[in-house]
Design a protein that fits this description.
By secondary structure, the protein is of the alpha/beta class. The chain has a domain at about 5-140: 3-Layer(aba) Sandwich (Rossmann fold). The protein contains five helices and ten strands. Strands 5-2-6-7-1-8 form a six-stranded parallel β-sheet, with helices on both faces. The chain has a two-stranded antiparallel ribbon with strand order 3-4. Strands 9-10 form a two-stranded antiparallel sheet. β6 (about 85), α3 (about 95-105) and β7 (about 110-115) form a beta-alpha-beta unit. The longest helix has 14 residues, at about 15-30. It is elongated and about 55 Å long. The model has no long low-confidence stretch (mean pLDDT about 85).
């Protein structure tokens, strides 16, 4: 039975690596997959899902105006699709998450969405909030803070290296901009915790 999956984490947890590996596993068994990624994030090049460890695949792109149900239906006219893999799921709109859910329910196609849960302010992305509400299964992709605890938050650093507390929710960047931290150290970075309590 097809399901909508949400694989979530902070930055640099290996979500794209896991997506590409899972897609490869399907293809290795002769089953076709359909890959999608956000037009907004083209750091690896247009139409690319790329991992920090150096693997990449070409994908169709989506933006806020893309009808994902129609895109999946269109792709199925070219041949069977065993699974849809979508990267950068935090950039989905609520309506697009419903389109993915309808693809699962009405077309019988499993959808695996990978993305960030929260932004640098500790707030849910709209796409992630909708996926947390609608996904049949959720899987946390874990990464660690510099202290060794599980990282669940991310800070955005400004040009001076200091953690930012305000700004647009979306700013594309990598290790030069974002750092994944546990909640305790995230609070410390944004000035919500006395340094005297740090360890």
């Amino acid at each position: 039975m097809a399901k909508l999956y949400f694989h979530y984490s902070t930055m640099n947890a290996g979500k794209s690596t896991l997506l590409l590996q899972a897609s490869h596993n399907y293809r290795e068994r002769g089953m076709a997959t359909y890959l999608l990624t956000a037009k907004l994030d083209d750091r690896a090049g247009a139409r690319q899902i790329a991992s920090r460890i150096g693997i990449a695949e070409t994908a169709d792109i989506f933006d806020a105006g893309t009808d994902l149900f129609a895109a999946i239906e269109r792709r199925r006219t070219e041949g069977p699709v065993a699974c849809v893999f979508l990267d950068e799921a935090q950039f989905l709109t609520r309506e697009q998450v419903w389109q993915l859910a309808r693809s699962v329910d009405d077309l019988g196609v499993p959808v695996m969405a990978y993305g960030l849960r929260v932004d640098f302010r500790g707030e849910l992305f709209p796409g992630s909030a909708a996926l947390l509400a609608l996904a049949d299964e959720m899987r946390e992709v874990r990464t660690i803070c510099h202290c060794g605890r599980k990282a669940t938050m991310v800070v955005r650093r400004g040009p001076d290296g200091r953690a930012l507390r305000d700004g647009a929710q979306v700013q594309i960047g990598g290790n030069e901009t974002y750092v994944s931290l546990c909640r305790r150290h995230w609070r410390e970075e944004i000035g919500d915790r006395p340094e005297s309590l740090s360890d």
